[in-house]
Specification:
The protein has 172 residues and is mainly α. Helix content is 58%, strand content 7%. The longest helix is centred in the middle third of the chain and has 33 residues, at 85-117. InterPro entries: CALM/Myosin/TropC-like, EF-hand-dom_pair, EF_Hand_1_Ca_BS, EF_hand_dom.
């Protein structure tokens, strides 16, 4: 009775405990397992290391042939030409973590830019200032395009743009 794992812990046959050192969310692990399983056509629990390039490409990572060879060498330590899900998860997790750090860095830079425009520290900038910023970013923008953008950005129609509205505009 006590040795049966709860259903959530056994989905997709992922050993969450063995992979807890990855420091990624269970939903990300499930996504990685689905990707892994889609390449494990013979359902052997392993995939050929020469699939790594294609998989990383799916995850948005374009690598040079040299970078790819280096990664394959690291992953396939025993040289058997295949990797199991644990090895795959460790590889993919490093790219997921890099992406999160990039996002955090971008948000920090956006926050710094917002603070530059919000000189008085009021927590918002005027739509007039935003109009000037947008003109600088794209000098081909027509006045009607600008007004349309301002309307979309200033969602609460306050005549000001707060951090959340600014962030939403910059991230899209």
């Amino acid at each position: 009775m006590g040795d049966k794992k709860p259903e959530a812990e056994t989905d997709l046959n992922i050993d969450y405990e063995a992979l807890k050192d990855l420091n990624i969310a269970k939903d990300q692990l499930r996504m990685l397992k689905s990707i892994f399983d889609s390449f494990d056509l013979e359902k052997k629990g392993e995939i050929a290391v020469d699939m790594i390039g294609q998989i990383l490409d799916m995850l948005g990572q374009q690598l040079t042939p040299d970078e790819l060879q280096k990664i394959i060498k690291e992953i396939d330590e025993d040289g058997n030409g295949v990797m199991n899900f644990g090895e795959f998860a460790h590889l993919a997790a490093s790219f997921l973590i890099e992406e999160e750090e990039d996002t955090e860095q971008i948000l920090k830079e956006l926050k710094d830019a917002f603070r530059l425009y919000d000189k008085e520290g009021l927590g918002y900038i005027s739509v007039d200032l935003l109009r000037e910023i947008l003109k600088e970013l794209d000098d081909k923008m027509t006045p009607s395009d600008l007004e349309q953008m301002i309307e979309e950005i200033d969602t609460d129609k306050s005549g000001t743009v707060d951090w959340e509205e600014f962030k939403a505009m910059m991230i899209g």
